[in-house]
Design brief:
By secondary structure, this protein is mostly helical. The chain contains seven helices and no strands.
């Protein structure tokens, strides 16, 4: 007889929660790790953990918060382990297929590479802010850090991205970084 997921007091259904949140969990993991296989494995681990903790979660909002927090923290852990044990570059790894917006695809590619080069905590904050559209207070709750830290790290990350993007744009147009 197959085992059934534990039911939370609010009647949350594990299968529907997985279907509803799998794209979000994978997306956060992928944007923080830039490795499809590792992101898929991490997402599976997160949902296994959700299955084990489902009875403790009180509402759909609590589930979403819990998934964002667990995914972000586990992805940061994986990124830290990678730094201690460097791996082969992922520059040649294909990006997941997504519907493209009407923006400049070259600019988007450059920006994704620059975001991927940020330190893991700053990258997590940028991804949660601009991909998941969380406000700084929600990011602070998800990552378990003060709101002021989120704001200052976001400000520094954006300044660094602007600086690097302007250098990339200047080099692409044939200008050297110090000339206008």
């Amino acid at each position: 007889m197959p085992r059934r997921a534990p039911a939370a007091a609010s009647g949350l259904d594990f299968g529907s929660l997985v279907r509803q949140h799998q794209a979000m969990v994978f997306s956060i993991a992928w944007h923080l790790l830039r490795d499809r296989a590792v992101a898929e494995e991490l997402a599976q681990d997160v949902f296994l953990s959700l299955y084990q903790h489902l009875a403790e979660l009180e509402s759909p909002e609590h589930v979403q918060f819990w998934l964002r927090r667990v995914t972000s923290n586990r992805a940061l852990d994986v990124a830290r382990r990678r730094q201690r044990r460097p791996m082969v570059s992922l520059e040649n790894a294909p990006e997941p297929v997504a519907v493209s917006s009407t923006g400049d695809p070259l600019l988007g590619t450059a920006l994704r590479k620059l975001v991927a080069a940020l330190p893991e905590k700053a990258r997590a904050i940028v991804v949660l802010r601009y991909q998941e559209d969380l406000d700084p207070a929600e990011i602070a709750r998800v990552l378990g850090i003060p709101v002021g830290t989120v704001k200052s790290q976001l400000q520094r990350a954006l300044a660094l991205l602007r600086e690097k993007l302007s250098r990339v744009a200047g080099l692409a147009s044939g200008l050297s970084p110090g000339k206008e």
